[in-house]
Description:
The protein is 40% helix and 26% strand. The chain has 17 helices and 15 strands.
Amino acid sequence: MENLALIDSFSEFKDDKQIDRVTLMAILEEVFRNALKKKFGSDDNFDIIVNPDKGDLEIWRNRVVVADGEVEDPNEEISLSAAQKIEPDFEIGEDVSEEVKLIDLGRRSILALRQNLISKIHEHDNTIIYKQFKDLEGEIYTAEVHHIRHRAVILLDDEGNEIILPKEKQIPSDFFRKGDNVRGIIESVDLKGNKPTIIMSRAAPVFLEKLFEQEIPEVFDGLITVKKVVRIPGEKAKVAVDSYDDRIDPVGACVGMKGSRIHGIVRELGNENIDVINYTSNLTLYITRALSPAKVTSVKIDEVKKRAEVILRPEEVSKAIGRGGHNIRLAGQLTGYEIDVLREGAEEDVELSEFSDEIEGWIIQEFSKIGLDTAKSILEHDINDLVKRTDLEEETIRDVINILKEEFEE
């Protein structure tokens, strides 16, 4: 088999793998040099001439002519009589260049060459894919559902690259079918062995930030800056935005008329509730805004302990805490302060935990879940309302109210 014919047969990989011919030739030279080392012990005295335009490759072995019977290293030296069969006028001490045909390497070596070439091309492809996706970390990417597993969804992009969307990186309400297009951010890219592992996330805060960039022109153009995003995926998110142009209302621009601009983002995130607030360096005002939709009466800040005491009217407390405590938790993450909620007139109130000797802990916990953790906060509510908002029986709630009333009647 001639060199050119073998190169042409190898070139089929170029079409399959989208590898450019110059790179293919470089890989070929490396593969051939490895084969020469195995066959002859060294490739130092071989010249490999690659012509990427023609797709041709020549191998020449260089040896020194020595007297007949004095050849010590057949790879480095050639006897005078053997040299003169190549060219009759060769003399001792001269260099002889002789072309090596692939057929001279033997069938087994040629098969090994092919396997080695396949391996090297795969390695090259994986390196290219790794670099390509490493540059896309933190960016939105779209791929199609190929296979659904228990712990992850396997996606394929248009180039056939595999992307993994683990269960914990999905929004809880996500439901996919084979063939669905899925958007997320490329969260991480790692090389495991020689194969790149590409992880997508839809739960990361940066996914929401990038959706703002995609869907809101002022954010894309840099007129509005997303300062910080915090999320409980599929439940609630808070996004702090700012603009250096006083003529632009960043919140209004992000939300749009009747929520028109943010609607697509909310739908993409499984109806996640998104609060967009104006960022400010005024910490008191920032904490106040972060607790929206609750209306804050006053804020007391301890910058050393990174804590804030927030006073609210009793009817605003449950809004500040939010369902499942989501609102106050996200407000704390957004501002970087641990927020304690107090009711107006709380100095005359008594913490519900003070009644732990009379009221069981799980009952106190049930009231706490809806933002009622003092005696007065419970006494201010109608019994029927408390029955609806908690998992407690009416009789249990009446017993609690009687205990609390006794405290204030004494």
